[in-house]
């Protein structure tokens, strides 16, 4: 894949509504754990190896249609995260490397897939901007039910959302790791602020 591609109308429409409802109701869905680049966003993350895909689908059945379509056959480790932005939220320029907290030497993902689950009507801002070191490669205006794939080594950002309402995407960083790297990655865990604060309160 050169830079990025888009697949419109990726799923039946009722799947998007179902995903929206399930994610909003999920106890892990909370103010984000991700780094400082993610300003005023909500979400949670599922880290898993391909060997544990069935377990992921058992615990999160509503992710299955997305995973069936979006996962790339050559990838063996994944960082899946629903990401919600509202008015005033933005994501500063970054390269996705969320598995770095488990393996310091990790290369960026091969591919990142992003499904737009809900987008405010008449959205202003909120575009996904993709860059190479030399130039801007694309500016993608989120459309509900479009599945975007982009090369995992691209720097990207999300412009500040200027409209009321929620912009919910389902993002999956897809890695092709060596056996040695793979050993450092948890087979299946959920990362969420909600879980961490519950743990802290218990102490
Ligand atoms: O929602 C998007 O358009 C992309 C979000 C993103 O960059 C990320 O989750 O790493
Ligand atoms: Fe990203």
From TrEMBL:
Any GO MF annotation of the entry: oxidoreductase activity
Domain Fe2OG dioxygenase: residue ranges: 69-176
Alphabetical UniProt keywords: Iron, Metal-binding, Oxidoreductase
InterPro entries according to UniProt: Oxoglu/Fe-dep_dioxygenase_dom, Pro_4_hyd_alph_FE2OG_OXY
Pfam families assigned to the protein according to its UniProt record, in alphabetical order: 2OG-FeII_Oxy_3
Family membership noted in the UniProt record: Belongs to the iron/ascorbate-dependent oxidoreductase family.
Protein name listed in UniProt: 2OG-Fe(II) oxygenase
Source organism phylogeny: Bacteria, Bacillati, Cyanobacteriota, Cyanophyceae, Nostocales
């Amino acid at each position: 894949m050169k830079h990025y591609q888009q697949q419109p109308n990726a799923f039946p429409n009722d799947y998007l509504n179902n995903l929206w409802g399930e994610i909003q109701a999920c106890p892990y869905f909370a103010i984000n754990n991700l780094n400082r680049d993610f300003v005023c966003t909500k979400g949670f993350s599922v880290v898993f190896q391909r060997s544990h895909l069935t377990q992921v689908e058992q615990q999160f059945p509503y992710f299955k249609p997305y995973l069936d379509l979006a996962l790339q056959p050559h990838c063996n480790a994944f960082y899946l995260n629903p990401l919600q932005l509202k008015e005033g939220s933005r994501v500063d320029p970054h390269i996705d490397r969320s598995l770095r907290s488990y393996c310091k030497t990790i290369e960026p993902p091969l591919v990142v897939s992003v499904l737009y689950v809900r987008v405010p009507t008449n959205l202003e801002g909120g575009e996904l901007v993709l860059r190479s070191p030399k130039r801007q490669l694309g500016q993608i205006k989120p459309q509900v039910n479009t599945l975007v794939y982009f090369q995992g080594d691209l720097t990207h950002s999300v412009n500040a959302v200027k409209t009321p309402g929620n912009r919910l995407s389902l993002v999956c960083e897809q890695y092709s790791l060596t056996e040695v790297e793979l050993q450092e990655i948890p087979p299946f865990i959920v990362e969420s602020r909600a879980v961490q604060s519950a743990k802290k309160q218990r102490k």
